[in-house]
TrEMBL record:
It is found in: Cell membrane. Gene3D superfamilies: MetI-like. Keywords: Cell membrane, Membrane, Transmembrane, Transmembrane helix, Transport. GO terms for cellular component: plasma membrane. This is Putative aldouronate transport system permease protein.
């Protein structure tokens, strides 16, 4: 067996080996380019802000300091805003994914007479939008102003997610649905017990898209709930914090004085706050992504089998 493997290695052309090594080098470079900005942000956020002004922070902090994180989390609204962000992300993702999957199942059925018309109507909304003012007026007329549900209801349907899920469902064997109908199952039972369990890979993919959108969204808070602090989200609070730090034009002393009686105060700067905000906002998504990674690639691949 070992002799066969050695002979196989000898038969590999030198051109293929060079190509493989080129691919390895290219992927390593791509990985460094992708990971470095996040590592640099982490190093800047953990470095003393007054020292960071000098520059030269690359992979690790030169003077370890948690003043920027202390400044961010000492803000009274951060904890409650984080709770609101988590709630809107969880509820928004679950409701949107389930509703999108139901619509995708309906328009994937060949016996649905209006499926082409309904599909076209949904797709048109991806290219044409009513605009900011009509959307604002609609939300106001629906009574969603200063309400938590303004984060959920307007985005309850994702057209792109519907198209991806529909393509996945169309790739499933028709015999599964036919056998369920023969056994007396209705459409909703077929969807819940047959289709939904089989579409978990693509649902995980679309759920990740929706969760990232819900977690990072702040403009809807600015439009509809800016006067209600109880419904403010983490992203909106971080955005306000960054604007305040930029408007100050100078360093902010989070401790309100000198540390340990020294002549140099522990300051935070807009740059250190920006880096800290990036880490705080990105960390939850980074923690969730590894659990969905195996579904992510599979869902995108299988969802694109049929158009």
């Amino acid at each position: 067996m070992a002799i066969a493997e050695k002979s196989y290695k000898r038969r590999v052309p030198i051109g293929d080996r060079i190509f493989d090594w080129f691919n390895y080098a290219f992927m390593i470079c791509l990985m460094i380019v992708t990971v470095y900005p996040f590592v640099n942000m982490l190093a800047v956020s953990l470095n003393d802000a007054s020292d960071s002004v000098k520059g030269g922070i690359y992979f690790w902090p030169r003077e370890l300091s948690f003043d920027s994180y202390k400044y961010v989390f000492d803000q009274g609204t951060i904890v409650h805003a984080t709770f609101i962000s988590v709630m809107r992300t969880v509820l928004g993702t679950l409701i949107s994914t389930f509703c999108s999957a139901m619509i995708a199942y309906a328009i994937s059925r060949p016996d649905f007479v209006l499926r082409k018309f309904v599909t076209l109507a949904f797709v048109l909304t991806m290219y044409f939008n009513g605009g900011l003012i009509p959307n604002f007026l609609l939300v106001r007329e629906l009574g969603l102003m200063n309400s938590f549900w303004v984060y959920i209801i307007p985005g309850i349907i994702g057209v792109f997610n519907i198209i991806v899920i529909r393509s996945f469902i169309e790739g499933l064997p028709d015999g599964l649905m036919e056998s369920a109908r023969i056994d007396g199952a209705g459409e909703f039972t077929t969807f819940m017990r047959i289709v939904l369990p089989l579409t978990l890979p693509v649902l995980a993919t679309t759920s990740l898209f929706t969760a990232v959108y819900q977690w990072n969204s702040w403009f809807d808070v600015f439009l509809y709930n800016s006067s209600n602090v109880e419904l403010s989200t983490l992203q909106y609070e971080l955005m306000k914090m960054l604007q305040n730090s930029n408007a100050s034009g100078s360093s902010i002393d989070p401790a309100g004085g000198f540390a340990n009686g020294s002549a140099a105060a522990n300051y935070v700067t807009p740059t250190s706050i920006r880096a800290t905000m990036t880490i705080v906002a990105s960390l939850p998504i980074i923690m969730v992504y590894p659990f969905l990674q195996r579904y992510f690639v599979k869902g995108l691949t299988l969802g694109g089998v049929k158009g």
